[in-house]
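thought: fold this chain, then report.
action: predict
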Amino acid sequence: MTKTIMNEEVIAVLYGGNSAERDVSLNSGKAIAQGLEQVGFKVVLIDTKYTPLTELVAQNIKRVFIALHGRGGEDGCLQGALEFMGIAYTGSNVLGSALSMDKVRSKQIFKACNIPTAPFTVVCKDDLATLDVEKLLQGLGGKVMVKPAHEGSSIGMAMADSAEKLSNALVEAFVFDGDVLIEAWIDGPEYTVAILGDEALPAIHMETPREFMIMRLNINQPVPNIIARVVYQKNKKKE
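observation:
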Protein backbone atom coordinates (compact mmCIF):
# COMPACT_ATOMS: atom_id res chain seq x y z
CA MET A 1 0.00 0.00 0.00
CA THR A 2 1.33 3.42 -0.95
CA LYS A 3 1.85 6.25 1.52
CA THR A 4 -0.73 8.30 -0.39
CA ILE A 5 -3.42 5.71 0.26
CA MET A 6 -2.33 5.30 3.89
CA ASN A 7 -2.57 9.06 4.37
CA GLU A 8 -6.30 8.75 3.74
CA GLU A 9 -6.64 6.25 6.61
CA VAL A 10 -6.71 7.02 10.31
CA ILE A 11 -3.93 5.39 12.30
CA ALA A 12 -4.74 4.69 15.93
CA VAL A 13 -1.91 5.10 18.43
CA LEU A 14 -2.66 2.85 21.39
CA TYR A 15 -1.11 4.19 24.57
CA GLY A 16 -1.56 4.49 28.33
CA GLY A 17 -3.08 1.20 29.43
CA ASN A 18 -3.04 -0.36 32.88
CA SER A 19 0.52 -1.62 33.30
CA ALA A 20 3.16 -0.39 35.74
CA GLU A 21 4.69 1.47 32.77
CA ARG A 22 1.61 3.58 32.06
CA ASP A 23 3.39 6.93 32.53
CA VAL A 24 6.13 5.97 30.08
CA SER A 25 3.50 4.92 27.56
CA LEU A 26 1.55 8.16 27.86
CA ASN A 27 4.63 10.17 26.98
CA SER A 28 5.84 7.96 24.14
CA GLY A 29 2.33 7.67 22.67
CA LYS A 30 1.97 11.43 22.44
CA ALA A 31 5.41 11.74 20.83
CA ILE A 32 4.59 9.03 18.27
CA ALA A 33 1.28 10.64 17.39
CA GLN A 34 2.98 13.99 16.92
CA GLY A 35 5.61 12.44 14.66
CA LEU A 36 3.02 10.68 12.51
CA GLU A 37 1.00 13.88 12.15
CA GLN A 38 4.10 15.84 11.15
CA VAL A 39 4.68 13.54 8.17
CA GLY A 40 1.06 13.76 7.03
CA PHE A 41 -0.81 10.87 8.66
CA LYS A 42 -4.22 11.17 10.26
CA VAL A 43 -3.95 10.00 13.86
CA VAL A 44 -6.23 9.24 16.77
CA LEU A 45 -4.85 8.60 20.26
CA ILE A 46 -6.62 5.82 22.16
CA ASP A 47 -5.91 5.18 25.83
CA THR A 48 -6.73 1.50 26.35
CA LYS A 49 -7.28 2.05 30.06
CA TYR A 50 -10.52 3.84 29.29
CA THR A 51 -11.39 2.78 25.73
CA PRO A 52 -12.14 -0.84 24.74
CA LEU A 53 -10.56 -2.29 21.61
CA THR A 54 -14.03 -2.58 20.07
CA GLU A 55 -13.76 1.17 19.49
CA LEU A 56 -11.23 0.40 16.75
CA VAL A 57 -13.96 -1.41 14.83
CA ALA A 58 -16.47 1.32 15.56
CA GLN A 59 -14.08 3.90 14.07
CA ASN A 60 -13.18 1.60 11.14
CA ILE A 61 -9.51 1.61 12.14
CA LYS A 62 -7.39 -0.68 9.95
CA ARG A 63 -3.92 0.09 11.34
CA VAL A 64 -2.55 0.79 14.81
CA PHE A 65 0.78 1.93 16.18
CA ILE A 66 1.35 0.20 19.51
CA ALA A 67 2.81 2.59 22.08
CA LEU A 68 1.75 0.55 25.10
CA HIS A 69 4.53 -0.54 27.46
CA GLY A 70 4.64 -3.58 29.70
CA ARG A 71 1.93 -6.15 30.32
CA GLY A 72 -1.03 -6.11 28.05
CA GLY A 73 0.82 -4.15 25.39
CA GLU A 74 4.09 -5.94 24.76
CA ASP A 75 3.37 -9.50 25.89
CA GLY A 76 1.32 -10.82 22.97
CA CYS A 77 -2.13 -10.20 24.48
CA LEU A 78 -2.86 -7.07 22.46
CA GLN A 79 -1.19 -8.52 19.38
CA GLY A 80 -3.45 -11.57 19.50
CA ALA A 81 -6.56 -9.43 19.86
CA LEU A 82 -5.57 -7.26 16.90
CA GLU A 83 -4.85 -10.27 14.72
CA PHE A 84 -8.26 -11.73 15.60
CA MET A 85 -9.83 -8.40 14.64
CA GLY A 86 -7.88 -8.25 11.38
CA ILE A 87 -6.13 -4.99 12.28
CA ALA A 88 -2.52 -4.42 11.23
CA TYR A 89 -0.11 -3.38 13.99
CA THR A 90 3.50 -2.39 14.56
CA GLY A 91 6.12 -4.52 16.25
CA SER A 92 6.61 -8.24 16.75
CA ASN A 93 3.90 -10.86 16.30
CA VAL A 94 2.08 -12.72 19.08
CA LEU A 95 4.72 -15.37 19.72
CA GLY A 96 7.67 -13.00 19.50
CA SER A 97 6.02 -10.52 21.86
CA ALA A 98 5.00 -13.19 24.38
CA LEU A 99 8.43 -14.81 24.54
CA SER A 100 10.46 -11.60 24.65
CA MET A 101 8.36 -10.15 27.49
CA ASP A 102 8.86 -13.33 29.53
CA LYS A 103 12.44 -13.17 30.82
CA VAL A 104 12.40 -16.77 32.05
CA ARG A 105 11.17 -18.22 28.74
CA SER A 106 13.70 -16.07 26.89
CA LYS A 107 16.53 -17.45 29.02
CA GLN A 108 15.32 -21.00 28.47
CA ILE A 109 15.31 -20.46 24.70
CA PHE A 110 18.82 -18.98 24.81
CA LYS A 111 20.09 -22.05 26.65
CA ALA A 112 18.30 -24.44 24.30
CA CYS A 113 19.91 -22.69 21.32
CA ASN A 114 23.37 -22.61 22.96
CA ILE A 115 23.36 -18.81 23.09
CA PRO A 116 25.61 -17.57 25.93
CA THR A 117 23.61 -16.09 28.80
CA ALA A 118 24.29 -15.36 32.45
CA PRO A 119 23.69 -18.23 34.93
CA PHE A 120 20.29 -17.85 36.56
CA THR A 121 17.59 -19.31 38.72
CA VAL A 122 13.87 -18.62 39.10
CA VAL A 123 12.12 -18.12 42.43
CA CYS A 124 8.35 -18.37 42.91
CA LYS A 125 6.61 -16.21 45.48
CA ASP A 126 5.25 -19.26 47.32
CA ASP A 127 8.82 -20.53 47.89
CA LEU A 128 10.19 -17.35 49.44
CA ALA A 129 9.56 -18.35 53.05
CA THR A 130 11.70 -21.51 52.79
CA LEU A 131 14.35 -20.16 50.40
CA ASP A 132 18.02 -20.45 51.42
CA VAL A 133 18.99 -16.98 50.24
CA GLU A 134 22.67 -17.24 51.19
CA LYS A 135 23.11 -20.54 49.34
CA LEU A 136 21.36 -19.16 46.26
CA LEU A 137 23.53 -16.04 46.28
CA GLN A 138 26.80 -17.95 46.57
CA GLY A 139 25.71 -20.39 43.89
CA LEU A 140 25.47 -17.47 41.45
CA GLY A 141 28.84 -15.96 42.32
CA GLY A 142 27.98 -13.72 45.28
CA LYS A 143 26.48 -10.83 43.28
CA VAL A 144 23.22 -10.99 41.37
CA MET A 145 20.57 -9.04 39.50
CA VAL A 146 16.97 -9.52 40.59
CA LYS A 147 14.23 -9.00 38.00
CA PRO A 148 10.46 -9.55 37.97
CA ALA A 149 9.89 -12.10 35.18
CA HIS A 150 7.32 -10.09 33.21
CA GLU A 151 8.09 -6.40 33.71
CA GLY A 152 10.07 -3.83 31.72
CA SER A 153 11.64 -0.38 32.20
CA SER A 154 13.75 -1.71 35.11
CA ILE A 155 10.62 -1.95 37.29
CA GLY A 156 11.25 -3.96 40.46
CA MET A 157 14.89 -4.62 39.57
CA ALA A 158 17.74 -4.51 42.05
CA MET A 159 21.35 -5.59 42.52
CA ALA A 160 22.20 -7.73 45.53
CA ASP A 161 25.59 -8.74 46.92
CA SER A 162 24.49 -9.90 50.37
CA ALA A 163 21.80 -12.18 51.74
CA GLU A 164 20.02 -9.21 53.30
CA LYS A 165 19.98 -7.24 50.06
CA LEU A 166 18.78 -10.28 48.12
CA SER A 167 15.94 -10.91 50.57
CA ASN A 168 14.83 -7.27 50.33
CA ALA A 169 15.13 -7.30 46.53
CA LEU A 170 12.98 -10.40 46.27
CA VAL A 171 10.27 -8.89 48.47
CA GLU A 172 10.23 -5.80 46.25
CA ALA A 173 10.20 -7.81 43.02
CA PHE A 174 7.32 -9.97 44.20
CA VAL A 175 5.19 -6.83 44.44
CA PHE A 176 5.17 -6.84 40.63
CA ASP A 177 5.31 -10.53 39.75
CA GLY A 178 4.79 -14.01 41.17
CA ASP A 179 7.97 -15.23 39.45
CA VAL A 180 11.35 -13.57 39.81
CA LEU A 181 14.48 -14.13 37.75
CA ILE A 182 17.82 -14.01 39.56
CA GLU A 183 20.88 -13.73 37.32
CA ALA A 184 24.59 -13.81 38.08
CA TRP A 185 26.01 -10.30 37.83
CA ILE A 186 28.12 -9.54 34.76
CA ASP A 187 30.42 -6.53 34.67
CA GLY A 188 31.01 -4.83 31.34
CA PRO A 189 29.73 -2.24 28.86
CA GLU A 190 26.07 -2.27 27.83
CA TYR A 191 24.98 -2.22 24.20
CA THR A 192 21.60 -2.33 22.54
CA VAL A 193 20.83 -3.14 18.91
CA ALA A 194 17.41 -2.62 17.34
CA ILE A 195 16.31 -4.71 14.36
CA LEU A 196 13.95 -3.24 11.79
CA GLY A 197 12.67 -5.91 9.43
CA ASP A 198 15.81 -7.79 8.35
CA GLU A 199 18.16 -4.89 9.05
CA ALA A 200 20.22 -4.46 12.22
CA LEU A 201 20.35 -0.77 13.13
CA PRO A 202 23.48 0.87 14.59
CA ALA A 203 24.64 -0.47 17.96
CA ILE A 204 24.23 1.98 20.82
CA HIS A 205 26.49 2.04 23.87
CA MET A 206 24.68 3.03 27.07
CA GLU A 207 26.57 4.58 29.99
CA THR A 208 25.30 5.57 33.44
CA PRO A 209 26.92 6.62 36.72
CA ARG A 210 24.65 4.14 38.48
CA GLU A 211 25.42 0.49 39.02
CA PHE A 212 22.92 -0.46 36.34
CA MET A 213 20.68 1.26 33.83
CA ILE A 214 17.23 2.22 35.07
CA MET A 215 14.22 3.86 33.48
CA ARG A 216 12.30 6.42 35.51
CA LEU A 217 8.55 6.01 35.09
CA ASN A 218 8.23 9.78 34.77
CA ILE A 219 10.47 10.57 31.82
CA ASN A 220 10.14 14.25 32.61
CA GLN A 221 12.60 13.49 35.44
CA PRO A 222 15.26 11.53 33.57
CA VAL A 223 18.13 9.73 35.23
CA PRO A 224 21.08 12.19 35.08
CA ASN A 225 24.21 11.66 33.04
CA ILE A 226 23.03 8.78 30.90
CA ILE A 227 24.98 8.77 27.68
CA ALA A 228 23.89 6.97 24.52
CA ARG A 229 26.35 6.78 21.65
CA VAL A 230 26.05 5.20 18.24
CA VAL A 231 29.21 3.12 18.14
CA TYR A 232 28.85 0.96 15.08
CA GLN A 233 27.17 1.25 11.71
CA LYS A 234 27.14 -1.74 9.42
CA ASN A 235 26.57 -0.76 5.83
CA LYS A 236 24.75 -3.50 3.95
CA LYS A 237 25.10 -3.68 0.22
CA LYS A 238 21.99 -4.61 -1.65
CA GLU A 239 22.42 -7.53 -4.00
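thought: worth noting. The mean pLDDT is 86.
final: C-alpha coordinates above.
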